[in-house]
Amino acid sequence: MWALQHGGAHITTWAEVPMAKIHDKADAVVRVDMTTIRGSNLPILKVDVPEVIVDRVLGHEVVGTVHSVGSGASTQSR
Question: How many C-beta neighbours within 10 Å does residue 46 have?
Fold first, then answer.
């Protein structure tokens, strides 16, 4: 899958990253159909924010489709 990653000050890159997997019975994997960044991401894009490591995947506020769920998910979430 593809992700927008932080590459350092003023650098963003599209990179192929591994597909997420279920690790815990309460996990869910959601295929992101649409996402955006918001104001809290702008400082990351404008300057080097020490707390944000290089290759961090950016974007939240997603619209997506449930791809898979762990065994502990309720039937309402499937």
Answer: 10
Give the residues across from 69 on adjacent strands: 28
- CA atoms of 41 and 10, how far apart (whole Å): 12
For every one of its 78 residues, what pLDDT tens digit does the chain have, with 9 covering 90 and above? Answer: 888 888 887 888 899 999 889 999 989 898 888 888 778 777 877 776 778 888 888 877 889 999 999 998 876 544
Residue 42, phi then psi, degrees to nearest 5: -60, -40
Q: Is 19 helix (H, G, I), strand (E, B) or coil?
A: coil
Residue 2 CA to residue 12 CA, distance in Å, equals 13
Beta strands, E only, the chain: 2-8, 11-16, 28-36, 60-69
CB 43 within 8 A of CB 67: no
